[in-house]
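Consider one such protein record:
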Amino acid sequence: MTNRIGHGTVLSFAGSTAVIGEAISITPMEISADEIDITTYASTSKYREFMAGLINPGEISIECALNDTDEGQVEALAAVGGAAEAFVLTFPSASAHWDFSAFVKSFTHGAPMDDQMTATIVLKATGVAEFTVGS
């Protein structure tokens, strides 16, 4: 991917036509490895030693302009606390995307006095997340 703006990025349920619409901001997952301290009394220096542990696929957050008729927002709200589902996060060129499974961890309404109402949806990814470029 070359440098570009995120305008046109789409988060959708892979098993339906539902796109989580009216997106204002999308924060993709931060994939990270647990750290395991393997320092022993026999370690040759006074520095702790570590190895990588299990990989955590992280969370995906999407802030939307609240729209109670948007199919994706309605589906996300109904799915809070349910089973993991397949999702696709597609970047503007459509040639780069994440395929992942996640459950809807939370759906929060925002109602500021002097700005648009919002919905913030947090997905907890589970299992392997596949990043594809060029297909």
Notes: Residues 10-133 form a domain with the Factor Xa Inhibitor fold (CATH 4.10.410).
